[in-house]
Amino acid sequence: METLVGILFFVFGAIVGSFLNVVALRYNTGRKPTGRSACFSCGKKLEVYELIPIFSYIFLRGRCSQCKSSISIQYPLVEFTTGLLFVLMYWYQSQSLILLTYYLLVSCLLVVIIVYDIRHMIIPDGLVYAFIGLGFLRLLYETPLASLIRSPEIWNLLAGPILFLPFWVLWYFSKGAWMGFGDAKLAWGIGWTLGLVKGASAIILGFWIGAVLSLLVIVLGKLASTSSMRKMFGSLGLPTLHLKSEIPFAPYLIVGMFVALFTGADFLGLGLILFS
To answer: What is d(CA 210, CA 252) in angstroms, rounded to the nearest whole number?
Structure first.
Protein backbone atom coordinates (compact mmCIF):
# COMPACT_ATOMS: atom_id res chain seq x y z
CA MET A 1 0.00 0.00 0.00
CA GLU A 2 2.82 2.38 0.92
CA THR A 3 4.52 1.73 -2.41
CA LEU A 4 1.30 2.36 -4.35
CA VAL A 5 0.75 5.67 -2.56
CA GLY A 6 4.35 6.63 -3.32
CA ILE A 7 3.82 5.87 -7.03
CA LEU A 8 0.64 7.96 -7.05
CA PHE A 9 2.47 10.86 -5.42
CA PHE A 10 5.23 10.61 -8.02
CA VAL A 11 2.72 10.65 -10.89
CA PHE A 12 0.87 13.58 -9.33
CA GLY A 13 4.16 15.40 -8.74
CA ALA A 14 5.27 14.84 -12.35
CA ILE A 15 1.97 16.31 -13.59
CA VAL A 16 2.43 19.30 -11.29
CA GLY A 17 6.03 19.58 -12.50
CA SER A 18 4.77 19.86 -16.07
CA PHE A 19 2.65 22.83 -14.99
CA LEU A 20 5.57 24.34 -13.05
CA ASN A 21 7.61 24.31 -16.26
CA VAL A 22 4.96 26.50 -17.86
CA VAL A 23 4.82 28.80 -14.83
CA ALA A 24 8.60 29.26 -14.80
CA LEU A 25 8.76 29.96 -18.53
CA ARG A 26 5.84 32.39 -18.59
CA TYR A 27 6.41 34.15 -15.26
CA ASN A 28 6.76 37.93 -15.71
CA THR A 29 6.12 37.64 -19.46
CA GLY A 30 2.49 38.72 -19.40
CA ARG A 31 1.35 35.30 -20.60
CA LYS A 32 -1.07 33.29 -18.49
CA PRO A 33 0.18 29.88 -17.32
CA THR A 34 -3.17 28.33 -18.27
CA GLY A 35 -2.80 28.90 -22.02
CA ARG A 36 -2.21 25.96 -24.33
CA SER A 37 1.43 24.97 -24.80
CA ALA A 38 3.10 25.18 -28.20
CA CYS A 39 6.46 24.48 -29.82
CA PHE A 40 8.81 27.44 -29.38
CA SER A 41 10.23 26.97 -32.89
CA CYS A 42 7.24 26.38 -35.19
CA GLY A 43 4.35 27.38 -32.92
CA LYS A 44 2.53 24.04 -33.28
CA LYS A 45 -0.06 23.54 -30.54
CA LEU A 46 0.82 20.45 -28.55
CA GLU A 47 -1.53 17.47 -28.63
CA VAL A 48 -2.56 15.52 -25.54
CA TYR A 49 -0.07 12.73 -26.22
CA GLU A 50 2.71 15.34 -26.38
CA LEU A 51 1.91 16.61 -22.89
CA ILE A 52 2.37 13.41 -20.89
CA PRO A 53 5.06 14.16 -18.27
CA ILE A 54 8.44 12.50 -18.91
CA PHE A 55 7.09 9.89 -21.35
CA SER A 56 6.22 12.39 -24.09
CA TYR A 57 9.83 13.58 -24.17
CA ILE A 58 11.04 9.97 -24.46
CA PHE A 59 8.41 9.06 -27.06
CA LEU A 60 9.21 12.13 -29.18
CA ARG A 61 12.96 11.53 -28.70
CA GLY A 62 13.37 15.10 -27.49
CA ARG A 63 12.13 16.68 -30.72
CA CYS A 64 9.03 18.48 -31.94
CA SER A 65 6.75 16.12 -33.90
CA GLN A 66 6.31 18.72 -36.65
CA CYS A 67 9.50 20.77 -37.13
CA LYS A 68 11.87 18.28 -35.43
CA SER A 69 13.57 21.04 -33.42
CA SER A 70 15.10 20.01 -30.09
CA ILE A 71 12.95 20.12 -26.97
CA SER A 72 14.73 21.36 -23.85
CA ILE A 73 15.65 18.58 -21.45
CA GLN A 74 14.48 21.00 -18.75
CA TYR A 75 10.94 19.65 -19.18
CA PRO A 76 11.50 16.00 -18.15
CA LEU A 77 14.08 17.02 -15.54
CA VAL A 78 11.64 19.34 -13.78
CA GLU A 79 8.83 16.78 -14.05
CA PHE A 80 10.98 13.99 -12.62
CA THR A 81 12.40 16.21 -9.87
CA THR A 82 8.97 17.43 -8.79
CA GLY A 83 7.64 13.87 -8.77
CA LEU A 84 10.58 12.75 -6.63
CA LEU A 85 10.09 15.68 -4.23
CA PHE A 86 6.41 14.83 -3.82
CA VAL A 87 7.30 11.23 -2.90
CA LEU A 88 9.97 12.36 -0.43
CA MET A 89 7.61 14.89 1.13
CA TYR A 90 4.95 12.21 1.56
CA TRP A 91 7.41 9.90 3.30
CA TYR A 92 8.75 12.77 5.39
CA GLN A 93 5.45 14.33 6.54
CA SER A 94 2.60 11.87 5.94
CA GLN A 95 1.39 12.16 9.54
CA SER A 96 0.00 15.69 9.12
CA LEU A 97 -2.09 16.64 6.09
CA ILE A 98 -1.60 20.35 6.81
CA LEU A 99 2.19 20.12 7.03
CA LEU A 100 2.32 17.80 4.02
CA THR A 101 0.35 20.38 2.02
CA TYR A 102 2.72 23.08 3.26
CA TYR A 103 5.84 21.20 2.17
CA LEU A 104 4.32 20.33 -1.22
CA LEU A 105 3.54 24.02 -1.82
CA VAL A 106 7.06 24.97 -0.74
CA SER A 107 8.50 22.37 -3.10
CA CYS A 108 6.52 23.84 -6.00
CA LEU A 109 7.67 27.37 -5.22
CA LEU A 110 11.31 26.34 -4.93
CA VAL A 111 11.27 24.34 -8.17
CA VAL A 112 10.00 27.41 -10.03
CA ILE A 113 12.62 29.58 -8.29
CA ILE A 114 15.39 27.19 -9.37
CA VAL A 115 14.30 27.17 -13.01
CA TYR A 116 13.75 30.93 -13.12
CA ASP A 117 17.06 31.74 -11.42
CA ILE A 118 18.99 29.44 -13.77
CA ARG A 119 17.41 31.01 -16.83
CA HIS A 120 17.35 34.67 -15.76
CA MET A 121 19.88 34.98 -12.88
CA ILE A 122 17.25 36.54 -10.63
CA ILE A 123 14.74 35.38 -8.01
CA PRO A 124 11.28 36.93 -8.52
CA ASP A 125 10.02 38.84 -5.48
CA GLY A 126 6.56 37.31 -5.74
CA LEU A 127 7.92 33.78 -5.41
CA VAL A 128 10.43 34.39 -2.63
CA TYR A 129 7.96 36.46 -0.57
CA ALA A 130 5.41 33.65 -0.93
CA PHE A 131 8.09 31.25 0.37
CA ILE A 132 8.79 33.51 3.35
CA GLY A 133 5.07 33.94 4.01
CA LEU A 134 4.47 30.19 4.02
CA GLY A 135 7.35 29.76 6.44
CA PHE A 136 5.80 32.28 8.82
CA LEU A 137 2.42 30.52 8.61
CA ARG A 138 4.15 27.26 9.50
CA LEU A 139 5.66 28.92 12.57
CA LEU A 140 2.23 30.15 13.67
CA TYR A 141 0.72 26.71 13.06
CA GLU A 142 3.32 24.88 15.14
CA THR A 143 3.80 27.53 17.85
CA PRO A 144 1.26 30.07 19.17
CA LEU A 145 2.31 33.68 18.57
CA ALA A 146 2.54 34.38 22.31
CA SER A 147 5.06 31.55 22.70
CA LEU A 148 7.08 32.61 19.65
CA ILE A 149 8.30 35.73 21.42
CA ARG A 150 9.58 33.78 24.42
CA SER A 151 12.70 31.67 24.83
CA PRO A 152 13.48 29.11 23.47
CA GLU A 153 10.82 29.32 20.71
CA ILE A 154 11.88 32.85 19.83
CA TRP A 155 14.93 31.38 18.09
CA ASN A 156 12.58 29.85 15.51
CA LEU A 157 11.25 33.34 14.81
CA LEU A 158 14.74 34.85 14.69
CA ALA A 159 16.10 32.10 12.41
CA GLY A 160 14.94 33.92 9.29
CA PRO A 161 16.47 37.33 10.08
CA ILE A 162 19.67 35.74 11.43
CA LEU A 163 20.29 33.73 8.24
CA PHE A 164 19.26 36.72 6.13
CA LEU A 165 21.80 39.07 7.72
CA PRO A 166 25.11 37.60 6.36
CA PHE A 167 23.69 37.51 2.84
CA TRP A 168 22.45 41.07 3.17
CA VAL A 169 25.92 42.20 4.32
CA LEU A 170 27.54 40.53 1.30
CA TRP A 171 24.96 42.05 -1.02
CA TYR A 172 25.17 45.54 0.50
CA PHE A 173 28.94 45.95 0.61
CA SER A 174 29.55 44.32 -2.79
CA LYS A 175 26.63 46.20 -4.37
CA GLY A 176 25.30 42.88 -5.61
CA ALA A 177 28.57 41.62 -7.09
CA TRP A 178 29.10 38.83 -4.55
CA MET A 179 25.54 37.95 -3.69
CA GLY A 180 22.08 38.88 -4.92
CA PHE A 181 19.44 40.38 -2.64
CA GLY A 182 17.10 37.59 -3.74
CA ASP A 183 19.50 35.06 -2.19
CA ALA A 184 19.30 36.96 1.10
CA LYS A 185 15.50 36.78 1.06
CA LEU A 186 15.68 33.10 0.15
CA ALA A 187 17.89 32.50 3.21
CA TRP A 188 15.21 34.17 5.35
CA GLY A 189 12.63 31.70 4.03
CA ILE A 190 14.97 28.78 4.66
CA GLY A 191 15.39 29.92 8.26
CA TRP A 192 11.64 30.00 8.86
CA THR A 193 11.22 26.64 7.13
CA LEU A 194 13.98 24.67 8.85
CA GLY A 195 14.80 26.63 11.99
CA LEU A 196 18.16 28.11 12.93
CA VAL A 197 20.37 25.02 13.19
CA LYS A 198 19.00 23.11 10.20
CA GLY A 199 18.77 26.33 8.22
CA ALA A 200 22.42 27.14 8.88
CA SER A 201 23.32 23.57 7.91
CA ALA A 202 21.40 23.97 4.65
CA ILE A 203 23.21 27.19 3.79
CA ILE A 204 26.64 25.76 4.61
CA LEU A 205 25.89 22.74 2.43
CA GLY A 206 24.68 25.09 -0.30
CA PHE A 207 28.01 26.92 -0.19
CA TRP A 208 29.90 23.62 -0.39
CA ILE A 209 27.87 22.50 -3.39
CA GLY A 210 28.39 25.89 -5.01
CA ALA A 211 32.14 25.73 -4.43
CA VAL A 212 32.46 22.28 -6.00
CA LEU A 213 30.35 23.14 -9.02
CA SER A 214 32.15 26.45 -9.45
CA LEU A 215 35.38 24.51 -9.81
CA LEU A 216 33.72 22.56 -12.60
CA VAL A 217 33.10 25.87 -14.36
CA ILE A 218 36.83 26.03 -15.06
CA VAL A 219 36.62 22.76 -16.98
CA LEU A 220 33.28 23.51 -18.61
CA GLY A 221 34.48 26.94 -19.65
CA LYS A 222 37.29 25.35 -21.62
CA LEU A 223 35.00 22.78 -23.19
CA ALA A 224 32.24 25.25 -24.01
CA SER A 225 33.96 26.30 -27.23
CA THR A 226 33.07 22.96 -28.81
CA SER A 227 29.82 22.67 -30.75
CA SER A 228 28.65 19.67 -28.70
CA MET A 229 28.95 21.61 -25.43
CA ARG A 230 27.14 24.62 -26.90
CA LYS A 231 24.36 22.29 -28.02
CA MET A 232 24.11 20.73 -24.56
CA PHE A 233 23.91 24.10 -22.79
CA GLY A 234 21.32 25.27 -25.28
CA SER A 235 19.17 22.19 -24.66
CA LEU A 236 19.21 22.90 -20.93
CA GLY A 237 18.38 26.54 -21.47
CA LEU A 238 21.73 27.52 -19.96
CA PRO A 239 24.23 30.11 -21.15
CA THR A 240 27.71 29.00 -22.12
CA LEU A 241 29.91 29.09 -19.04
CA HIS A 242 33.20 30.96 -18.72
CA LEU A 243 35.49 31.67 -15.78
CA LYS A 244 33.82 35.04 -15.20
CA SER A 245 30.28 33.78 -15.75
CA GLU A 246 27.58 34.83 -13.33
CA ILE A 247 26.32 31.68 -11.62
CA PRO A 248 22.85 31.47 -9.99
CA PHE A 249 23.18 30.64 -6.29
CA ALA A 250 19.55 29.86 -5.42
CA PRO A 251 19.70 26.26 -6.75
CA TYR A 252 22.60 25.45 -4.41
CA LEU A 253 20.79 26.88 -1.38
CA ILE A 254 17.60 25.03 -2.24
CA VAL A 255 19.36 21.69 -2.77
CA GLY A 256 21.13 22.24 0.55
CA MET A 257 17.76 22.95 2.18
CA PHE A 258 16.18 19.75 0.90
CA VAL A 259 19.18 17.63 1.93
CA ALA A 260 19.18 19.16 5.43
CA LEU A 261 15.41 18.67 5.69
CA PHE A 262 15.36 15.01 4.68
CA THR A 263 18.58 13.85 6.34
CA GLY A 264 18.64 16.03 9.44
CA ALA A 265 22.45 16.00 9.14
CA ASP A 266 24.31 18.66 11.11
CA PHE A 267 26.41 20.25 8.38
CA LEU A 268 26.92 23.28 10.64
CA GLY A 269 28.67 21.16 13.25
CA LEU A 270 30.64 19.32 10.58
CA GLY A 271 31.76 22.62 9.10
CA LEU A 272 32.90 23.88 12.50
CA ILE A 273 34.87 20.68 13.05
CA LEU A 274 36.54 20.85 9.63
CA PHE A 275 37.61 24.47 10.04
CA SER A 276 38.54 24.34 13.73
So the answer is: 6
Residues 82 and 59: their CA atoms lie apart, in Å, by: 20
User: Both ends of the chain: CA-CA distance in Å?
Assistant: 48
- Which tens digit of pLDDT belongs to each residue from 19-62? 999 999 999 888 888 777 877 778 778 778 778 899 999 988 88
Chain centroid to Cα 133, Å, comes to 17
What's the pLDDT at 69? 83
**Amino acid code (one letter) for 188:** W
Give, in degrees to the nearest 5, the angle at Cα 14 between 10 and 19.
Answer: 150
Q: What is the DSSP string of 41-94?
A: TT-PBPPGGG-STTHHHHHTTTB-TTT-PBPPTHHHHHHHHHHHHHHHHHHHST
- The verdict on whether omega for the bond into residue 251 sits within 30 degrees of 0, i.e. cis, is no
Burial (CB count within 10 angstroms: exposed 0-12, middle 13-18, buried 19+), residue 28: exposed
